[in-house]
Specification:
It contains two helices and 22 strands. By secondary structure, the protein is mostly beta strands.
Length: about 280
């Protein structure tokens, strides 16, 4: 069964469109359209079109009051996101598109059966569908780094063990580079991570229980202090080359000192959600 649901902007409410009392009927939300510019009979730029989409659901209730409650809940969740100006997410098979619900049209009223069909129209904030892929990289001591070396039952006057710390590989099965969020955990000083030799560094100190978030989509570098407060360290970032450069796909070589841990979340974009 397909997984299709709406998650409110504050992530507090979920509307499942594949189970009672909301049943998915049809829609064009998985379609896409691209625009292009033409110069001297040559295609110069192709990009996704930001376009309204729709989905039609049946809204049900086991009795009249439950039926009305389910209709009201649907409206309230959508309207709350518009009032707060925080877009919700329409999920399809694990991918999501940030959007607002901007219209609702009701047909096939069945008062005696407590059921109607509701066509809702959405406007995406970003025309792409996003699938998040994350990986954790843990601090590595020299002893853990040698675990993959050769171990003999007798001694040699030299070391067969692999001594390099702070190295992992990560394979990204996609066809394009992706925006990312990198979370670096203290304690550490001027943390630096190389991805296929491309450096990303912030010139700041992190104490224990502090962490740093680099977000390429928002173009922000935020330090989260142990007391719960946050501070922008945007001007302490590495300027050239830019730390906000998208992360490429394929096999990635990840190098760092090994003295700190960090997480990377990739925002993998597709014109059509993955089935």
């Amino acid at each position: 069964m397909l997984s299709i649901y709406y998650l409110s902007g504050d992530r507090s409410s979920k509307i499942d469109f594949t189970s009672w009392p909301y049943w998915m009927q049809t829609g064009d939300f998985a379609d896409y359209e691209k625009s292009y510019t033409e110069t001297q009979n040559r295609i110069m730029e192709i990009k996704n079109v930001l376009k309204e989409r729709y989905l039609t659901i049946s809204v049900c209730g086991s009795n009249e009051q439950e039926y009305y409650d389910n209709l009201n809940r649907l409206h309230d969740v959508f309207e709350k996101d518009i009032a707060s100006q925080i877009p919700g997410r329409l999920y399809f098979q694990g991918s999501y598109q940030t959007c607002y619900v901007i219209a609702s049209a009701k047909t096939e009223w069945e008062d005696t059966d407590c059921m109607l069909d509701n066509e809702i129209r959405i406007i995406p904030v970003n025309p792409c569908w996003i699938h998040e892929e994350s990986h954790q990289f843990f601090a590595q001591s020299s002893s853990s780094a040698t675990a993959g070396g050769l171990d003999f039952p007798f001694d040699f006057p030299f070391d067969f063990a692999e001594s390099k710390t702070g190295f992992e590989q990560w394979n990204i099965d996609h066809y394009a580079s992706s925006h990312f969020k990198m979370t670096i955990y203290g304690p550490c000083e001027n943390p630096r991570v190389l991805i296929n030799g491309y450096p990303r560094q912030v010139f700041t100190s992190l104490e224990a229980n502090e962490y740093l978030v680099i977000d390429s989509r928002d173009n922000t570098v935020i330090k989260h202090l142990a007391n719960g407060t946050t501070v922008s360290v945007y001007n302490s970032r590495q300027f050239q080359p830019s730390i906000f450069e998208k992360i490429p796909s394929g096999l990635l070589d990840i190098d760092w000192s090994g003295t700190f841990g960090f997480d990377i979340t990739l925002y993998i974009e597709r014109s059509e959600p993955k089935w």
